[in-house]
Design brief:
heterodimer; A: 437 residues; alpha/beta; Rossmann fold; nine-stranded mixed sheet; five-stranded antiparallel sheet; 32% helix; B: 132 residues; VC0802-like; Alpha-Beta Plaits; 2 domains; six-stranded antiparallel sheet; 41% strand; elongated
Chain lengths: 437, 132
């Protein structure tokens, strides 16, 4: 059982796993019914009695939980544990106004750390390794999530956080970093920096990397592996469910194993909500069955993927999910930050000189995501001025507001009136030139 | 003399100027003078045409963002010092020029300058008095 942190559970029989899941699920349903007003209300309204839930399959009788529910119950309204038991808060990146706030009890952190430790072990990480963490530390779950997992595994954990490329490269060489954790685009960015500084390959001890928090392709994987001379592993997660480590690549890299002892996955038709069989593409839904602070029931991730249940050569029995190939909503992930087109629209509505007609162009240039916002200039602007400076000031104002709202820098391009197609039904607001899958 | 100038917002993409000038051509208007102020992602095309109302309507009909500005058209001598003489006079009166462009006139020994000035009427008065 090489490369496994919890071999017993990771290779448990499907029957055994389902038994465990059922017990944990019932405990969680009782917990949320007793402690979370929203769930009590919904279960009652739906006429759901816990004694009617007789197997894991009966999950489909329960209502979904949506991101909007977290916003409506901001900040702690969905918590199922008293605040004195909550020891950590994280929040989702980049969204306006109300962020999505999540909480963890001590047990939750232990569970989450063990999920991450499994992912690290699957990537070949042992106590002898130096885990270099270049995810941002803070409310974002990436940094501290990998940090706790690496420490639990017993590896030497280096909390570098993101940014300051020169320092990253120095630490690679001086501290002997052997496992790199960051976003895949940052890994490519670092590999460019290594090439640029002509750092000799023998100065680097890197052997593997765990990359997540944004969508990436098999081609990017090959590129990272070739450029850094490492094996690149995918890790999936979302803060609402736990953070990174909900699922993870094994050495066969044929889909990410879902930590099914903690999270029950379902694939549904995003339009009808109907559960779809294994192997069929649809929206991924998770139910947390071991969490105490925020055990979400049937949470709609909006990620589109497939579940693969055939036996994996690594020996793990956890089902695998493919890399998500899209979203069932219009959320974009740009440099690890969640961006909804509606956020741009609400910014534009506050600027009287422009109309809220816009297109977002997302691209990946030199391995960094770029966001361009094309906005139509209004007749009013031109009627009031023909000064280039004045128009540029308006563009600057738009940029400033968008940058501070999204938390990432956007390029603003003013375009002629009526050149952006008007919505006929669903508006095409996004051109994503990054290539996935 | 105060005349009307048409300013058009132009996206920075190839062929766009050709499209815009052909709209003016199809409206049967003749361009007397033009200048372009450009930035990295857009430009403002400024035009003096023989029939500014007709040209403006045609441009608006084609969906362009257009503005009409009053500018001063000055005829100056086409010889060394012709322009600096005018500018010096204006500067002495504290009249600032926002932007300007010049072209050779059809009349011999004459050039013409188009100037955008904040204090338009005062400048016009001054220039008229000075015999321009």
């Amino acid at each position: 059982m090489a490369n496994m942190y919890n071999p017993e559970i990771e290779t448990a029989s499907r029957e055994k796993l389902r038994e465990l899941q059922y017990v944990a699920l019932m405990k969680t349903l009782k917990r949320v019914y007793e402690n979370v007003p929203l769930y009590r209300k919904r279960f009652d309204e739906w006429g759901i009695k816990l004694e009617d839930i007789n197997s894991v399959d009966d999950l489909s009788k329960l209502p979904f939980t949506y991101k909007q529910d977290l916003r409506d119950c901001y900040p702690y309204g969905l918590f199922a544990a008293p605040m004195e038991e909550v020891v950590r808060i994280h929040a989702s990146s980049g969204t306006t106004g109300k962020q999505t706030v999540v909480g963890y009890t001590k047990n939750d952190l232990n569970m989450w750390s063990s999920c991450v430790a499994r992912a690290l072990a699957a990537a070949g990480c042992t106590k002898k390794d130096f885990v270099h963490i270049s995810y941002g530390y803070g409310l974002f779950t990436g940094g501290l999530g990998l940090h706790d997992g690496a420490q639990l595994l017993g590896a030497t954990t280096i909390p570098v956080s993101s940014g300051n490329t020169d320092r990253q490269l120095q630490i690679f060489q001086d501290f002997g970093s052997s496992i790199l954790c960051c976003t895949p685009s940052y890994a490519l960015f670092l590999s460019d920096a290594i090439a640029e500084k002509k750092i000799p390959h023998e100065n680097l001890k890197l052997k593997a990397g765990i990359f997540g928090a944004e969508p990436w392709t098999e081609n990017m994987r090959k590129e990272i592996e070739a450029r850094l001379g490492i094996k690149a592993y995918d890790i999936y997660g979302l803060s609402e469910i736990a953070g990174p480590g909900v699922s993870y690549d094994c050495e066969y890299q044929c889909g990410m194993h879902i930590n099914e002892d903690n999270f029950i996955p379902e694939i549904i038709d995003p339009d009808t909500g109907k559960v779809l069989p294994y192997g069929v593409q649809g929206e991924l839904v998770f139910t947390c069955i071991t969490k105490e602070a925020l055990p979400l029931i049937r949470y709609r991730t909006r990620d589109i993927t497939r579940l693969l249940v055939d036996k994996c050569n690594c020996g793990r029995t956890f089902v695998r999910m493919e890399k998500p190939c899209g979203r069932s909503d219009d959320m974009l992930i740009i440099r690890g930050v969640n961006v909804f087109p509606s956020q741009i629209e609400s910014v534009l509505l506050t600027i009287k000189e422009v109309l809220p007609h816009y297109i977002l162009v997302v691209d990946r240039i030199n391995n960094l995501d770029t966001l361009e916002v094309k906005v139509e200039i209004s007749d009013e602007i031109m009627s009031s001025t023909d000064s280039v400076r004045h128009i540029e000031e308006i563009a600057k104002k738009i940029k400033h507001k968008i940058d501070s709202t999204l938390g990432i820098a956007a390029k603003i391009t003013l375009v002629e009136p009526n050149t952006i197609p008007r919505s006929q039904g669903k508006a095409q607001r996004v051109i994503d030139n990054r290539k996935y899958n | 003399m105060i005349i009307k100038q048409i300013s058009v917002f132009v996206e920075n993409r190839s062929g766009r100027l050709a499209e815009i000038t052909s709209i003016i051509a199809e409206a049967g208007c003749s361009i007397r003078a033009l200048s372009i102020a450009d930035t990295t992602n857009f430009g403002i095309l400024r035009l003096i045409v023989d029939d500014s109302k007709k040209a403006e309507d045609a441009l608006r009909t084609n969906g362009l963002a257009v503005s009409i500005t009053n500018v001063i058209n000055v005829r100056i001598e086409d010889k060394p010092g012709g322009l600096s003489k005018v500018l010096k006079m204006m500067s002495e009166q504290g009249i600032a020029v926002e932007y300007m462009y010049a072209f050779i006139s059809k009349c011999e020994n004459e050039a013409q300058v188009v100037m955008r000035i904040e204090d338009l009427n005062r400048a016009d008065e001054l220039l008229t008095k000075a015999g321009y």
